[in-house]
Amino acid sequence: MSDLVSSSVQVGAAIEDSPKRTQKSGPVYAQRRDCAAIKAQLMNHVDEESYMKVLTAFLQGQISKQTFDNRMKSILKSTTAKIIHNELMRSIIYNAHFSMVPPPNVEVPVPKIPEHVKVTRPGSDNSKFGLPNSPFIIQKVADLRYLLSTSQIGARVRSQLRERNMNCEDINTFEMIQHELRKHIVILLYESCKLAQTVKERSDQISTENSIHENSEENIAESLNNGTNSEENVKRKQIGVSEVLHILETENRYSSTISHAVLVKYSSTL
Asked: Any residues with CB less than 8 A from the CB of 21 and at least 6 apart, and which?
């Protein structure tokens, strides 16, 4: 059993005033340990220059854990220093792993809300109850990153029609809209697959012609016998962004529904 006991300075007998295990984990993420105060307390018991030099070297991966422990044993000479050192290490790990609170004097940038999300529209008519209409925030499918369900499409269509004093409760209408959206995506993927396969076949043809031109007949025969050009070794090209953008730009059915600004935006990511 003695072989299992670590001699590391970070592992020691549990002290009596150690905090109990957290029963509710929610508040853990809203807290932050004051490492600066713990460090200032520790510096009263150790040589600051030696301690920080070893700690910095370990955190930067310049020395191993065993070397770190051996050097810390000579620096942490008192029991109090070891206890405070352990507390500092736990605080650093806690802040790095759990805390969602930023360090002092550090401002976390708040992401800007897209302009189309800032526009609010009436979501439900509460005027008959003497209450203001609840806001309905319109988000694009590109922001949601999934195709809307029939009920979600219905809620959006009703909101748009309500602004124009129109009404529509026909569920078949919403199902038809979703069906057309799905068909729109399927056709786009189908045309992109055709284009990708055409590019792949053309690339294979050019590669074969170059091979015939560069290699002798004996090498070609040997290559065929070894199965180099066999069907199982030919890998189909996956659909890339370039194929999809090409279809969007050339197909009339898409160029009339997708703006040029959207194409420029996604073309810049290539």
From this structure: none
